[in-house]
Amino acid sequence: MPESRLRRGAGAAGLELTRELARRAQLLERPGVPPRVLPDAGIWSVGDQLAVAGHDLAQALRESADETAAARELAAALELLRAGA
Fold first, then answer.
1. Cα–Cα distance list, 61 to 8, 10, 18, 24, 25 (Å)
2. Which of 15, 31, 36, 41 has its CA 20 to 30 A from that of 8?
3. How far is CA 57 from CA 3, 6, 23, in A?
4. What is the value of pTM for the model shown?
């Protein structure tokens, strides 16, 4: 993505989405433990952070013992991704 677009808001929007995906993964992996906030590593890192957070959430969904909660989280995450696209 061009630097100009990242600076006009795409980087911040990507970081917000990434943080939400990471938060959801942490809540599935460790229920009852407050999730940590993903740090802002700069606009050049947002794509990588998004890929990692998405992978972490997918893994947490696969390993979840509560299939109903996992299905609900998957639907919510997909909606977030659609809204951000």
1. 33, 27, 16, 10, 8
2. 36
3. 27, 24, 9
4. 0.85
